[in-house]
Amino acid sequence: MNKSLRKTVIAGNWKMNKTATEAAALIEQLIPAVEGADCEVVICTPYTSLVTAVEKTKGTNIHVGAENVHFEKSGAYTGEISADMLVDLGVEYVITGHSERRQYFAETDETVNKRTKAALEAGLKAIVCVGESLAQREQGVTEELVRMQTKIALQNVSAEEMSRVIIAYEPVWAIGTGRTATAEQAQEVCAAIRKLLVELYGETVAQATTIQYGGSMNAGNADELLGKADVDGGLIGGASLKAADFGTIVKAASK
Ligand code: PGA
Description:
Elements: E1 9-13, H1 20-34, E2 40-44, H2 50-57, E3 62-66, H3 83-89, E4 93-96, H4 99-104, H5 109-121, E5 125-130, H6 134-138, H7 142-153, E6 165-169, H8 183-201, H9 203-208, E7 210-214, H10 222-226, E8 233-236, H11 243-253
Parallel strand pairs: 1-2, 1-8, 2-3, 3-4, 4-5, 5-6, 6-7, 7-8
Bound molecules: 2-phosphoglycolic acid.
């Protein structure tokens, strides 16, 4: 285990929050809150705020991501956004496979794979989300489930492309519930994901891949979660909308 081999990444997932006008105001507050951070800082915003976010964060240490992407390059897909469209705006990251998309928008492991591939082919960095439901945890299938989700999401993703992939372990029961996984639970699953990456890509790629924890990470618990050997950052929902809290998490990740 060597954390120095990989980047620590704190990414905000704004979900369906903030108008572009409100986004501009929040970014004004975020810039000083995360200035000088010794980790990668990303904000993933709704599509409608991306132009504002890219513009406002120019010359700062904040990187911008989208929350989803379509897998086709272009065509008759009313309401969808392609990877090339995001790249053209100056967007650098995209989240794929978030559990809310799996739950409410019929996302499957196969479409997560297609979106991830499309993002990588366009030159984006992908934050690929995996995680079990409460029922699955109670059934004792967490590790199998997360291994399967990760393995399918990464079908045909090359070792070279893995340098632009982050895996975010987000137990569904911990998202937006205030019920955080314990640091031990987060570590256990993040370590299992890394073990899978060793099997798929070998030790060097596995050690270089950032694996985040997400699910009610906040200013109070970030320190402990990020202190674990295989937890290389966080995907932050609720707390990413409060500049001071997000700043505290970024500081915890900079230690
Ligand atoms: P939360 O969301 O921090 O509000 O639990 C995390 C996420 O969904 O990425």
